[in-house]
Amino acid sequence: MTKQYLIEQAKEGMKQAYAPYSGFRVGAALLTGDGSVYLGCNIENASYGAAVCAERTAIFKAVSDGKREFEAIAVVCSNGTPAWPCGICLQVMAEFCPDIQIYLEGEQEVQVYSLQDLLPNAFRLSAE
């Protein structure tokens, strides 16, 4: 599965975004270990703390379907600049997919990062 394919799928996910407050629409496409793709979008709420990001929507949909192996996630936004995952989304990735590749659509090219690049000191429970 190519980076560009996942970017295009993320754009499809962005079409479902519910962003009446910010107008900032975000889409995500998550590639699982078995080749499935889960789409996500941001969903805002009048109580801002109840909003959810596209990345977490996609991850939670996959986890609720029993998926636990993830290869890559593509993230796009309505203004065409890289849609950097927030800290909460990065921490969720650290929990479920610490080795994931993150594709961000940029103005010139698709930028590729590892989770380690974006969250080098993720919180993890230590093994006892």
3D architecture notes:
With 128 residues, this protein is an alpha+beta fold. It is 29% helix and 23% strand. The chain contains 4 helices and 5 strands, in the order H-E-E-H-E-H-E-E-H. It has helices at residues 3-14, 54-64, 87-96, 115-118; strands spanning 26-32, 37-41, 70-77, 101-105, 110-114. Strands 2-1-3-4-5 form a 5-stranded mixed sheet. Helix 3 (87-96) links the parallel strand 3 and strand 4. Helix 2 runs parallel beside helix 3. The longest helix has 12 residues, at 3-14. The mean pLDDT is 95.
Q: Could you give a short account of the major beta sheet?
A: 5 strands, mixed
Mean pLDDT: 95
DSSP helix count?
4
Q: What helical percentage do the residues reach?
A: 25-40%
In what range is the share of β-strand residues? 15-25%
Give the overall silhouette: globular
| Largest sheet: spatial strand order | 2-1-3-4-5
Task: List low-confidence stretches.
Answer: none
Q: Tally of extended strands?
A: 5
**Terminal Cα separation, in Å?**
38 Å
Structural class: alpha+beta
SSE ordering:
HEEHEHEEH
The rounded Rg comes to 14 Å
Could you outline the blueprint of secondary structure elements for this entry?
Blueprint: H1 3-14, E1 26-32, E2 37-41, H2 54-64, E3 70-77, H3 87-96, E4 101-105, E5 110-114, H4 115-118
Parallel strand pairs: 3-4
Antiparallel strand pairs: 1-2, 1-3, 4-5
Helix pairs in contact: 2-3
